[in-house]
From TrEMBL:
Protein name, per record: ARMD1 protein
One protein family per Pfam: DUF5578
Native species: Rissa tridactyla
InterPro entries in the cross-refs: ARM-like, ARM-type_fold, DUF5578
PANTHER family for this protein: ARMADILLO-LIKE HELICAL DOMAIN CONTAINING PROTEIN 1
Gene that this sequence comes from: Armh1
Lineage of the organism: Eukaryota, Metazoa, Chordata, Craniata, Vertebrata
């Protein structure tokens, strides 16, 4: 038999629910604000006490209204925050189950793909999905089974909110850990973000891929082109993260393809990359002048990455030499149109010259005694004194080191 106090609590609950059921948008908005202010941070027992053991009745109404109105953005932010109070309540696992049973996760993921909704509302969705993921492996699997990785990756790539993008990164990182069944799916989802137009999304995706690389051990071949493509970013933080990922990938089977790709970037499009667009110069609308610039940025970043990777591993350095990296670095040093290419290529070239005697011999023969001495004395600045004739000689050099010569020289050292 219920006590007088319990009966009073039940009566208040029924009055509250009837008021909600009959209220219109403005009144419900006011009720939601009061609920958020009064109940944020409460535990499941505290919420049940507040609602006379009937908190689930209010949660059911919130989720039902969300399901009916989410496409119209009706009090969406308040609704999501209110649901978040239930999902974040300590000991409130049953609230989570009730939310999932009405298709809550699918609704949240669909909201992320609706272009007309506000970024702040989508960010609240990501926070709720994080609460779901934090509840354990089976909940992470449920999000992935609901095409959650694809939705989150798309949102990361297209969002205009840095805060929302960071929240998505945290969630994708969470889905990539303690979720072996879908680790590869998360990894590939992050790879799909790399070609996007958002530098922040690229940076966050690369950071997360580096962390995940230790878990996977291997990497899919589809990774090669997007990672090398990230090197053409004008944002140095994106380039930095791409190089960090390249370092992590040197222990994987994709290493030969990555190294081959890096060396190829040193000589983009053969001679055409180093010529101005005379044929289209009369057309002010042409994109041709901009195109080589991205190629040059990628060339400079590749030269920098090559130096970093070679210094990390003598074995990698030897493989690069066999791939004709010395020829490629000299071509980049001769690119008078892009000083960054010259500087990074020169610094990387110096490492190969000082480490491998046979490279030193070939470089000296290609540069000539005087120019070679300038290079050795000041690899970071010597190219600034280079005249067009010398640059052309470098850009058209035919230095070729026989296969396995690097390995032989290394063994002798």
């Amino acid at each position: 038999m219920t006590s007088v106090k319990e009966q009073e609590g039940i009566r208040k609950l029924m009055v509250f629910l009837q008021e909600w059921d009959s209220a219109h948008k403005v009144a419900r908005s006011h009720m939601l604000n009061n609920f958020i202010k009064s109940n944020d941070g409460k535990t499941e027992p505290e919420l049940e006490l507040e609602f006379a053991q009937g908190a689930s009745l209010f949660l059911a109404r919130l989720t039902a209204w969300l399901r009916m109105t989410y496409t119209y953005s009706t009090c969406l932010n308040q609704l999501l925050k209110s649901i978040g109070i239930f999902l974040s309540a300590a000991s409130g696992r049953r609230y989570l189950i009730e939310f999932l049973e009405i298709g809550g996760v699918l609704i949240l993921l669909e909201i992320l793909g609706l272009n007309h909704l506000k970024e702040e509302d989508k960010r609240e969705c990501v926070k709720l999905l994080q609460l779901v993921a934090n509840s354990g492996r089976k909940y992470k699997e449920f999000i992935c089974e609901s095409y959650g990785v694809q939705s989150l990756a798309n949102f990361l790539a297209t969002s205009n909110s840095a805060e929302a993008q960071e929240d998505v990164q945290v969630l994708l990182d969470s889905l990539g850990h303690g979720n072996p069944k879908y680790q590869n799916q998360v990894y590939k989802g992050l790879v799909a973000v790399l070609p996007c137009a958002s530098p922040r999304a690229q940076q966050l995706a690369l950071q997360t891929l580096v962390v995940m690389q230790d878990l996977l051990g291997e990497a899919p071949a589809i990774l090669v082109e997007p990672v090398l493509g990230a090197l053409c970013s004008v944002h140095l933080d994106v380039q930095y993260e791409a190089i960090q990922l390249l370092k992590a990938l040197m222990a994987c089977q994709v290493r030969p393809a990555l190294l081959k790709g890096l060396v190829a970037l040193l000589t983009p499009r053969g001679e055409k990359a180093f010529t101005s667009c005379d044929e289209t110069a009369k057309d002010p609308a042409t994109l041709c002048p901009r195109e080589p610039m991205l190629v040059y940025i990628q060339q400079a970043a590749a030269a920098k990455a090559i130096g970093v990777l070679a210094k990390e591993s003598a074995e990698v350095a030897e493989e690069l030499i066999q791939l004709k990296v010395v020829h490629g670095l000299m071509v980049a040093v001769g690119n008078l149109d892009h000083a960054a290419s010259q500087r990074h290529a020169s610094i990387s070239l110096e490492y190969f010259v000082r480490t491998f005697p046979f490279v030193e011999e070939r470089a000296k023969a290609a540069l000539g005694h005087t120019l070679f001495q300038h290079f050795m004395d000041s690899p970071e600045t010597w190219y600034t004194k280079m005249d067009p004739v010398q640059a052309e000689e470098l850009a058209s050099n035919i230095v070729d080191i026989p296969r396995d010569m690097a390995r032989m020289q290394s063994a002798e050292g």
